[in-house]
User: What shape does this take?
Amino acid sequence: MTAPVLEVKGLSKSFGGVKAIRDLSFQVHPHDILGLIGPNGSGKSTTVNTLAGVHAASAGEIVLDGAHVQTLPEYERVALGLARTFQTARLFPEFTVREQIALGAQVTRRSHPLSSVFAFGRRSAEDEAVAAHVEELLDMTGLRPVAETKTGAISSAQQRFLMIAMALAARPKVVLLDEPAAGLVAHERKELGRLIREIRDSGVAVLVIEHHMGLIMEICTRIVVLNFGAKIAEGAPEEIRNDKAVIDAYLGEAA
Assistant: This one.
């Protein structure tokens, strides 16, 4: 088996006396779509925010492509290859869709963002590469028809796909998708499933946190189940579907 691109070892996070994550360990391998599920309050959002650097870990290690990142700020984790989406859209409504995606690519720049301003109209090779990547993402996410539309004027479903495009603009090794199907109807969830598989096939590992069990069971190669901040099961979708502890804690409740 190939080395994991993301490895979580004994991760814990406490808020005062409340243990939101308890000694959590799992791996995300290249070409994985790993699902993270659990009842409300199980620690899913805290896990994502701790992996991304919003919260500082109380204990444990987060290893991204061989580098320990648990003490790094959020922007450095993004630069090293760990991107994420959010449950609610974080967009500039006056930007066009194309401009918003391009903004997500700024972390990949090696030259100063203002360098192109002083190039007297000449686009650098880096500018050209960013522009080409934005065009690829418009096609991948199905957003080309609204590329010149202000982000505040597109549908909520298109805003969800736009957040994914922004995360991918940073050229991550792993992308964390936080409730990407929230508010989507059936045909939009189907398109989301196609997009997530395409992301995986492009070489980007995916960690998806989601309540919609149909989507999780359909697209994930493996699933980690949390309850009260601790991992209670891990395995292939069929194993998780038939795990008694999972049924008792979550799937039975959902049924």
In short: The longest strand covers residues 18-28. The first helix runs from residue 44 to 52. Confidence is low (pLDDT under 50) at residues 116-120.
